[in-house]
Amino acid sequence: MSEVVITLGGVTFQDFEVPQSMVVEGGQRLALHQLIGGGRVVDVLGDDPGKISFSGIFSGSDAAARAQLLDAATAAGAQVPLFWDSFFYMVVIEDFSVSYEKPWWVPFSVTCLVVLDPVAAVASDVAAIGNLIASDVASAVGLSAQAGITLPLEGAATVSALAVSQNLVSAGMTAANGAFAASAAGLTGAVSPSAGVAGMAQVVASAGQLAALSSMSGYVNRAAANAATALL
Fold it and tell me: Is residue 160 located within the same domain as residue 99?
């Protein structure tokens, strides 16, 4: 990793000061419930970033001064940025130790507790939005039979598929409104009891279709809005 530059707070590590490896711990917080009979239920509680540790050797005329800077940051307990390559975290220095050998040669080791992992935070937000989209899509598809239209959302609910679905629902509502108006007019002009019963059935069917399309429109529009947000 000698070509990589590491920065912790205001201290930069470079050249042979850079450690051979950065040990990054992390995991997922889980709640395990053991059930009678040997079954289990696992609740996923969220990302647990863990710790990052590394060691190296400060060198040069400012080696001791930079070691003191990290010692002061450790004592302050302040949140500081840690980044190298494409990795970035906000951390608190949990442990910092040095072995002072010469003013220009100070071996060190440091352990940081991760306070914020921006990449994991974004992934969590995207997953939450994805769950909302999936729920809305399932609700919209579930109304297909009553609404009288089939949405192209059985596979991937892409932005383009949701846009097509919005157009289909809008066209369906226009057609259903026309059918409702025609059935209402037919009911008004019924000339016999049997014609009145038939007209009432058509009005009820048209009203039910409109209600389903209206609900479907709400689900599809919200899913489309969330899908667009996920791309920002």
Answer: no
Q: Is residue 71 part of a domain?
A: yes
DSSP string, 172-183: HHHHHHHHHHHH
Domain of 78? 6-116
| 43 membership: H or E segment, kind and range | strand 40-48
Does the pTM surpass 0.70? The reply is no
pLDDT higher than 60, residue 156:
yes
Domain boundary, last residue among 54, 81, 116: 116
Contact 159, 226 (CB under 8 A): no
**Same structural domain for residues 103 and 27?**
yes
Dump pLDDT digits (tens) for 173-221. Answer: 888 888 777 777 766 665 566 665 566 777 777 777 888 888 888 888 8
Q: Is 35 left (phi over 0), alpha (psi -120 to 50) or beta?
A: beta
Beta carbons of 123 and 220 less than 8 angstroms apart? no
